[in-house]
Inverse folding.
């Protein structure tokens, strides 16, 4: 059976924690899209970890962690990450890397930086990890697949030269930066080959066999629905699909095997990068929520930059859950809201005087004003509570109100960052 864990919003919903928790009863955890541009924060018996590339199942002995073909594979980052967990006494995880995954090259990272620099105040707020240039090259058919590292030298070198020729035109005339040297790029590829060789695997064949043996596979998504290049807030999106449906492609499994889609929704909103954010709040109100948010504040796991903050957005979340094909909602970080007398919730958008609960395309979204309803707070700490009935009445009312607005069942409530801070309904 395959389960997917994905985000309903802009990312940072707490997918890492939910994956880590569900991994307890899974055999295989697969990253199927994205790269090292976002991070998951996980708190478990070994400590607190920020993962960027490794699947969130690496902390268990019984699981295999898989980097699927859809991932933007940054080999040095993967290696640093393995080192960073092993050096903190986590046993060496079992890792497989798809022979069809493509690699982020050092020049992808440079192009990302140069382009953001060139765009100046119009930049996308990229984490400058090379993700957009990487996926552009993948679809322009000038990327490097892991399998190509095993090609004979002359053929691979010829491809490297062709790519350098093209890249160097931009480097010279658009960015005015140092040019690429084919021999250096070839050496970089050979270095990656040495690092990755022990893990390379025909992942889709491996997963096909695992499914025949009735293994449980978790697909771990990165970012959330609103960052999807097709269904998100284009162009302020990421460069690979963030949807559960893409899991079939990015892991290489049959779409009909995905039986459960757990969409993670945070009890308030946060976002990184540019783009419309209708329920955004500012000033002291935002600072306080940011300070109290998540586990130790809402700051990027990759960049450390402060996240933009807002109240729960029912319109965006209803859409985000629908587009994922949600079977279950995991409602996270609810404990953080315990300080509020009243909790504002965005229940609809006002677009040029028209009230709607349908999430619009980008131009309309930019004009949307939030319609806010306030719910009474519960004014206490709910961490440590294990049963739904033991939550304060106002807290249950908040959950049930949101469940009704978004129209998908909240089957899990997360009331703390730890693996076992979870209430099943
Ligand atoms: P992801 O990218 O979706 O995995 O999300 P992040 O890891 O960037 O952000 C979620 C943050 O919230 C992390 O710091 C988690 O440790 C933390 N977190 C997850 N669930 C809860 C929860 O229920 N309560 C609290 N207080 N923190 C949580």
């Amino acid at each position: 059976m395959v389960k997917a864990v994905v985000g309903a919003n802009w990312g940072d919903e707490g997918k890492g924690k939910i994956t880590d928790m569900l991994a307890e009863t899974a055999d295989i955890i697969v990253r199927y899209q994205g790269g090292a541009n976002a991070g998951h924060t996980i708190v478990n018996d070994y400590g607190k970890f920020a993962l960027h590339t490794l699947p969130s199942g690496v902390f268990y002995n019984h699981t295999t962690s898989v980097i699927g073909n859809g991932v933007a594979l940054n080999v040095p980052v993967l290696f640093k990450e393995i080192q960073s967990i092993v050096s903190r006494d986590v046993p060496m995880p079992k890792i497989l890397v798809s022979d069809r995954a493509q690699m982020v090259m050092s020049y992808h990272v440079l192009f990302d930086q140069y382009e953001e620099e060139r765009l100046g105040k119009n930049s996308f707020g990229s984490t400058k990890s090379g993700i957009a240039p990487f996926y552009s090259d993948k679809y322009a058919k000038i990327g490097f697949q892991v399998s190509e590292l095993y090609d004979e030298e002359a053929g691979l070198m010829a491809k490297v030269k062709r790519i350098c020729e093209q890249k160097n035109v931009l480097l010279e005339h658009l960015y005015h930066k140092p040019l690429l040297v084919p021999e250096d790029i070839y050496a970089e590829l050979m270095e990656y080959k040495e690092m990755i060789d022990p893990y390379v695997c025909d992942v889709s064949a491996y997963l096909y066999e695992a499914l025949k043996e009735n293994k449980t596979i978790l697909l771990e998504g990165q970012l959330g629905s609103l960052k999807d290049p097709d269904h998100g807030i284009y162009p302020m999106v990421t460069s690979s699909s963030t949807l559960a449906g893409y899991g079939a492609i990015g892991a290489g499994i049959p779409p009909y095997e995905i039986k459960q889609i757990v969409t993670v929704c945070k009890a308030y909103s946060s976002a990184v990068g540019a783009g419309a954010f209708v329920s955004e709040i500012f000033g002291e109100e935002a600072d306080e929520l940011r300070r109290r948010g998540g586990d130790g504040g809402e700051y990027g796991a990759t960049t450390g930059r402060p996240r933009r903050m807002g109240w729960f957005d029912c319109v965006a979340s209803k859409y985000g859950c629908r587009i994922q094909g949600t079977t279950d909602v995991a409602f996270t970080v609810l404990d953080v809201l315990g300080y509020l007398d009243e909790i504002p919730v965005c229940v609809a958008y006002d677009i040029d005087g028209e009230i709607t609960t349908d999430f619009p395309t980008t131009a309309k979204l930019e004009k949307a004003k939030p319609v806010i309803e306030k719910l009474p707070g519960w004014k206490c700490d709910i961490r440590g509570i294990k049963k739904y009935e033991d939550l304060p009445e106002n807290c249950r009312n908040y959950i049930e109100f949101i469940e009704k607005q978004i129209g998908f069942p909240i089957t899990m409530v997360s009331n703390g960052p730890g693996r076992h801070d979870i209430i099943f309904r």
